[in-house]
Amino acid sequence: MMTITVPDDLLRDGPLTPEQLKFDLALGLYVDRRATLGQASELAGISQSDFLDELGKRRISVHYDMVDLESDLHTISVLREKRGAEGL
Question: CA 29, CA 40: separation in Å to the nearest integer?
Fold first, then answer.
């Protein structure tokens, strides 16, 4: 874990709370593709689904590329095989 020093007046004199600061940092890292959805939501201290809701409110696209698609298709294939092996 890393500690970040923020000037007191940024939080004291403005409408910014520590929670908003964490969310804004997480959002910026996500938008710049320097954090995944999971990393950003963890940094923000909210669930992935809440983070996705916030992305939608701000009209920010979810990062989803061919690597993600291939990974999801592989997972589906594995789950189908497992389901078939269990006789479900």
Answer: 7
In this prediction the pTM is: 0.71
Token pair 């910014």: residue: 16
Query: Directed axis angle between helix 18-31 and helix 37-44, to 10°?
Result: 170
**How far is residue 12 CA from its own chain's centroid?**
27
The domain locations on the chain are 15-85
Residue 4 to residue 8: CA distance in whole angstroms: 12
Give every CB contact of residue 72 below 8 A, 6+ residues apart in sequence.
Answer: none
CA-nearest of 57, 63, 1, 72 to 30 is 63
Contacts 24+ apart (CB under 8 A), 61-66: 62/37, 63/30, 63/33, 63/36, 63/37
Q: What is the pLDDT of residues 35-75, one digit of tens each?
A: 989 999 999 999 999 999 999 999 999 988 888 889 889 99
